[in-house]
Amino acid sequence: MKQSRRNFIKLASLGMVSGLVAPHLVSCDSLNSTSGSALKNIGLQLYTLRDLLLKDPKEVLKSIAKIGYSHVETYGADINTGSFWGLTVDELKKILNDNDLKTHSGHYDLGKYLSKAHQDKENIEKYIEIAHNLGQKYIVAPVPPMDQINKLEVGDYQYMAEQLNKAGEMAKKAGIKMGYHNHFWEFKAFGNGTKGLDILLAFTEPDLVVFELDLFWTKKAGESPQSYFSKYPGRFPMWHVKDMDRAYSTPLELNNFDERTGKRDTLNLMEVLGSIKYTEVGSGSIDYINMATFANESGLAYAFIEQDEIYLDNKLTSIKKSYDYMQKNFK
């Protein structure tokens, strides 16, 4: 792997990056899940209901369970207090248990840990302790260093990959794997088709680091999730399942890249957000029936409904609509 990392940029400059991660690098264990069970047994990323959770997390979790969800993905751990939305880890664990809810994965802020510019890194050991206490199998970095989002270059993604590997080594001792969740910026090209997500996939160790593919953001970036599942089989044991309003389905222009100068357009995040609208799963433009045929190839073990913004008056109605679609269409 070390030799392949040293050769990565040379290969990328020749446009050969797509073949770097071969199927023989993937653990057979990651290919054992079945698509039907993972998609029917859909979880919920709790960020979807963040406003409600801040008001009454106990009641919200109870309502999620009543709809039929059996597992949730956490977010918002306060590393200083070891709490979620005012609940201690033990209190959250009890509420989950009381409602027959499990949590297999959590999003944890690793912005400084993944940044070359910051020396005051987040406490990975503390995150591992929290995740272990909750019974989670994955600690997921939800975003890259956001204060550098328009400055990230190849070397920054390489550094992020090495940091994920180091965290993966620490987490492995507790039976936990590190994960990375994408948005759209990981698909900006660095010439010859090389993209940030490809760098992370090539430079991380498959037995230490997994990926949670956000299907909405991948499609919005103009990429095919299915092609990533085929190129990197077994590397995506988690999916974020969200749908795209049909009127807002035009892909983003991410890669206006000048090969002569090596310069590309700067992303205006406010303009990007203005071109995005979410909808309940099954109501939009993403073909989840087709996507499901790639579940085994991706290594899918857990999938989570997430809707970054809900436009219905009742947010619980929204997550029920998405849940019901998954129950109707998957076995």
Question: Keywords for this structure?
Answer:
single chain; 331 residues; alpha/beta; TIM Barrel; eight-stranded parallel β-barrel; 14 helices; globular; disordered N terminus
Helices and strands in order, then pairings?
Blueprint: H1 2-13, H2 35-40, E1 43-45, H3 50-55, H4 57-67, E2 71-74, E3 77-78, E4 83-84, E5 87-88, H5 89-98, E6 102-107, H6 124-134, E7 138-141, H7 154-172, E8 177-181, H8 196-203, E9 209-214, H9 215-220, H10 225-231, E10 238-241, E11 243-244, E12 257-258, E13 263-264, H11 269-274, E14 278-279, H12 288-292, H13 295-298, E15 302-305, H14 315-329
Parallel strand pairs: 1-2, 1-15, 2-6, 6-7, 7-8, 8-9, 9-10, 10-15
Antiparallel strand pairs: 3-4, 4-5, 11-14, 12-13
Could you explain how this protein is built, in words?
This protein is of the alpha/beta class. The protein has one domain (30-253, 263-329): TIM Barrel. 38% of the residues lie in helices and 15% in strands. It is built from 14 helices and 15 strands. The chain has helices at 2-13, 35-40, 50-55, 57-67, 89-98, 124-134, 154-172, 196-203, 215-220, 225-231, 269-274, 288-292, 295-298, 315-329, and strands at residues 43-45, 71-74, 77-78, 83-84, 87-88, 102-107, 138-141, 177-181, 209-214, 238-241, 243-244, 257-258, 263-264, 278-279, 302-305. The strands form 4 sheets. The chain has an 8-stranded parallel β-barrel with strand order 1-2-6-7-8-9-10-15. A 3-stranded antiparallel sheet has the order 3-4-5. The chain starts with a helix and ends with a helix.
Gross geometry = globular
User: Secondary-structure element sequence?
Assistant: HHEHHEEEEHEHEHEHEHHEEEEHEHHEH
How many angstroms does the end-to-end distance come to? 39 Å
Which sequence of strands runs across the widest sheet?
1-2-6-7-8-9-10-15
Estimated helix fraction: 25-40%
- The CATH architecture category equals Alpha-Beta Barrel
- What is the helix tally? 14
Number of strands: 15
> Which superfamily, in CATH terms, is the homologous superfamily?
Divalent-metal-dependent TIM barrel enzymes
Strand content: 15-25%
- Radius of gyration of CA atoms, rounded to a whole number: 19 Å
Query: Could you name the CATH topology?
Result: TIM Barrel
Low-pLDDT stretches are 1-35
CATH class: Alpha Beta
- Report the sheet with the most strands, covering strand number, pairing sense and barrel closure: 8 strands, parallel, barrel
